[in-house]
Design goal:
Layout: E1 2-4, E2 10-11, E3 13-14, E4 19-23, E5 25-27, E6 33-36, E7 45-60, E8 66-67, E9 75-80, E10 90-99, E11 105-107, E12 113-118, E13 122-132, E14 135-136, E15 142-151, E16 154-162, E17 170-171, E18 174-187, E19 194-201, E20 209-217, E21 225-230, E22 235-237, E23 250-251, E24 257-261
Antiparallel strand pairs: 1-24, 2-4, 3-23, 4-22, 5-6, 7-8, 7-20, 7-21, 7-24, 9-19, 10-11, 10-12, 10-15, 13-18, 14-17, 15-16, 17-20, 18-19, 18-20, 21-22
């Protein structure tokens, strides 16, 4: 059984007093949620495991990691169309993959995800959204983001960025905002007449990155919480919950934790 925190039902927990207060919602017929079950009727003694949801900005670093910090020094993908090909649009987009421990690649995106375009000369950061699906991960999985550039009908790249093995349980469905530092330049001279496209990354100026990157994992050492319901008081007593470390020690957010109960 999985109990998921919601704004008006689910599990509330406060680490300041080292107890977890649980309100377990119940459902009438036809799936209509109506409130909380009688605390005097609920009792169990089981293993509770809390998975924290991490929301991060992942930077396209000059060492081609998709890291949590930006690097120093930048790199570029700099290409141009053939002579006399004219003024062409330039586009940039990503593909997203799961890389398993044995190097098997599983696609998460389809088509040209988070596409941005320049049809006139210019440079700077551009952004586009991509709907990342929810996906069950193995702890040894990494996420790969490949950036491609198109000039007219010609494709260049990819430039590949890879996370560490996340130690995660799920990649959380969310809307990523993908930022690219891009440039388009058309050379109209009679012996050129061609278009240059550039993708740059790797430092705080050429700050290509992915925002709202979400995954769930066991926090800290990842020790399960062994706990039981205190019959009649509706308290979930968790003697080991001090192993869970958070920045504010108070958790009451739909996006922070998911609780699973072993049957």
């Amino acid at each position: 059984m999985t109990l998921t925190y919601a704004n008006d039902s689910g599990v509330y927990f406060n680490l300041n007093d080292m107890t977890i207060v649980a309100k377990v919602g119940y459902t009438y017929a036809y799936g209509v949620s109506t409130g909380y079950s009688d605390p005097n009727e609920m009792t169990f003694n089981t293993t509770i495991t809390a998975y924290q949801t991490y929301t991060q900005t992942r930077y396209m670093r000059s060492d081609n990691q998709l890291g949590t910090t930006q690097s120093v020094g930048f790199q570029t993908l700099n290409e141009r169309s053939p002579r006399w090909s004219g003024s062409l649009s330039c586009s940039w987009y990503i593909e997203v993959w799961v890389r398993q421990a044995d190097s098997t690649m599983i696609p998460l995106s389809s088509g040209k995800a988070a596409l941005v375009t320049r049809s006139i000369d210019g440079s700077g950061l551009q952004s586009s959204a991509w709907a990342c699906p929810n996906y069950n991960l193995d702890s040894t999985d990494a996420i790969v983001v490949r950036v491609y550039m198109e000039i007219g009908s010609d494709t260049f790249g990819p430039v590949e960025f890879v996370t560490e093995q996340l130690g995660a349980e799920d990649l959380v469905g969310s809307t990523w905002t993908v930022w690219y530092h891009t440039e388009r330049d058309y050379d109209s001279r009679w012996n050129q007449d061609r278009t240059t496209g550039i993708f740059s990354w790797g430092d705080t100026i050429y700050n290509s990155r992915v925002e709202n990157f979400k995954f769930t994992a066991l926090p800290g050492a990842g020790s399960p919480i062994r706990a039981s319901i205190n019959h009649g008081s509706n308290e979930l007593i968790a003697p080991y919950n001090q192993r869970i470390v958070t920045t504010d020690n108070f958790l009451k957010s739909a996006s922070l934790y998911r609780i699973t109960k072993e049957e």
